[in-house]
Amino acid sequence: MSVHLAKGTRDHLPEAMRLRLAVYDKLRHVFEGHGFHALETPAFERIETLMGKYGDEGSKLIFKILKRGKGGETGACDLALRYDLTVPLARVVAMNPGLRMPFKRWQIAPVWRADRPARGRFREFVQCDCDVVGSKSAVADAECLSVASQSLSALGFHQHRLRLNHRVLLHALASTVGAADRETELLVIIDKLDKIGREGVTKELLARDFEAAAVDKVWDVLDAPDAGRDDVLAHMEAQLEGDEVGPAIERLREVVELAKALGVPDEALVIDPTLARGLDYYTGIVYEFALDGVNMGSVGGGGRYDGLVGMFGKRDVPAVGLSLGIERLIVLLEEEGRTIPGASGIDVTVTIVNDAHLEHAARTAAALRAAGLRVELVLEPSKLGKQFKHANAIGSRYVATVGPDEVAAGGIALKNLTSGEQDTLPLDDAIARIRG
Amino acid sequence: MSVHLAKGTRDHLPEAMRLRLAVYDKLRHVFEGHGFHALETPAFERIETLMGKYGDEGSKLIFKILKRGKGGETGACDLALRYDLTVPLARVVAMNPGLRMPFKRWQIAPVWRADRPARGRFREFVQCDCDVVGSKSAVADAECLSVASQSLSALGFHQHRLRLNHRVLLHALASTVGAADRETELLVIIDKLDKIGREGVTKELLARDFEAAAVDKVWDVLDAPDAGRDDVLAHMEAQLEGDEVGPAIERLREVVELAKALGVPDEALVIDPTLARGLDYYTGIVYEFALDGVNMGSVGGGGRYDGLVGMFGKRDVPAVGLSLGIERLIVLLEEEGRTIPGASGIDVTVTIVNDAHLEHAARTAAALRAAGLRVELVLEPSKLGKQFKHANAIGSRYVATVGPDEVAAGGIALKNLTSGEQDTLPLDDAIARIRG
Questions:
Q1: A427: pLDDT confidence band, cut at 50, 70 and 90?
Q2: Who contacts A315 (Cβ-Cβ below 8 Å, separation ≥6)?
Q3: Do residue A1 and residue B63 have CB atoms under 8 angstroms apart?
């Protein structure tokens, strides 16, 4: 009988899980350190909660669940698998009017999209979101940047950049170049700058009948000096027209200063006038995260989106958040063979010398476990060499043996599998050495 | 616009999640301490992987996912949501012939069943399984009992019983009473003993035309002396017929001794001749866990099932495992208001005295976070009283304030929200005090 995984899905076997759990642990520590709280929502929602929230393309990618009983016979669906973590968050906020605001939540959870599977693209993948709901404060924006920076550092990616822009400045760009009525079209093209380059953007703008003067003006704004945040902001303030420009620039300045006070490295904070990051969604600051020296696009981003979380309610709910590209980060860690300190493995394997010493081995395992160690107890007596081989194969750091000699001496034989050193010593000393 | 959860599903809001994550952490620690490894499998499987594995009733409860594109228009389904963690484990074992044996895996993950929702019964709920695949060893059986006992203790349920029986003894019971050809029928009725009592079982057996002599013989076997494991085992050995009885009794004795050596409390290990625990599945030892002084049925169980994991492969794969009733345990912890040590909360809330001190507050929050503390930074300056109220509401243990006086004194004002004590002290001393 042949058996297969569902297309586009993966098992995470123990070795992969060790890294994955270590990553989750590190991120959770950062999120909790910032006063964010865990939220879990169901894997599936009522179909009407999800439909119409992700555009026409998104709707096609939603996994729909057949009705049970009679409805199902005609192919009717009433449920659908979660497509992201944001719509469920909006539903939670709408359904729980007593929720204490600001509501700061983190969630690391799988989502499902019926995308065409490709290298690195799966139909089940984990999203990792932090959002502050119910506050317009610049401190909230800055906290999100602090979470992002500390998260990347916690995974060992100390060299990273947080590129910042403000949705209002993009709006002002469209007005300034005389394309206020074609803002979305303009920004969609500018958003491709990373992929098609400056010439590609110019070509496409002209092809779409933007006037040459407007295109020149676009570059007047976007070709900001390379000289640092203050100069870039001053340049934008000088180039862009409109009453909203000043306050947006001021907001960016404020968020940058707060982020620095929160410990985000000065050099990590970059103003990038070309960062468009999606279109309809965001209303304030937007940001995207990148790793220095790594040939990979964004590893996360986010921004302020003051309309979205209120979608199911009557009230407007301000919100700002970030999403970490956790699957990309895990791939990077796997490819680079990086280890996460504290990723769990086996501390010590307890061997079984022979049937007569089964209970000695069991008692030794129990004592080592009581000390908080991760202990593999060999399940069947076999040649010791085979047991040592097993210990090596599972990545055990030590092997403990309690045979007749050790019982007589009242100790255990402990071998360090890295150094090869071996000693017979009392249990407490063995524990101390393994803890190391 | 009104918005609802899918029927039978729940959100886990932050307070519930704090307990839930603490439970997961504790259990993971026990599982890793026993050398078990994490496994994650996809939420959905190919529909043919699941159909036919759970009986007619089970099949009706499987959530089916509509085909994308054309197939879906006619109601065809190609995928289905995971119904338990065992069939996916069997698939993983079949698909990964290189998996190192014995394969000891733990998994805490949601499963989905389209059951009629009721109090405490949901359509999405978490299962928590540990299994040892690829070993027939009695040590493996005993390790499962050690995992069960330590898991319950780790959650604060120190008083618990592990009721044990052996599938072969149940088989021998059917032969001994002359009902070998009606074994399943007999055991299904005996399995109801907990619910319908001794008289109910007798009545049902007679109603189903079991002979009176057979029913008497059933009670001769099951009415074991109340006098302890050895007597119960000796009683069963004396009463039951068949060559397999002796080795099964011997195996139970061996597993009990090993479990004791592994640290399972002597009084927790109980031989229960009436424990039938399912029917087709198990081939060796079976067990069920109960809490003393708690009016709730089983909080988990398991046993040896040497046929099941091989269902997708050609080879027989021995296996033994346990499943903890994690949702029941969480309900108990919630109802009893028990706290799990280390369940995360907010250590300290940093207030914002006024706009001029925003960055001082941010720097203070950053320093406290760098010390590993969980820090809520208030997002907007408001009256200090309101900020303290917020700190209380989120369960913060301390409040830290850095206003003009504190900046002048080079310290921070720290208030213990439990004792009400307040002090101005240097940052390092404040950190030491909060760490406590």
A1: very high
A2: none
A3: no
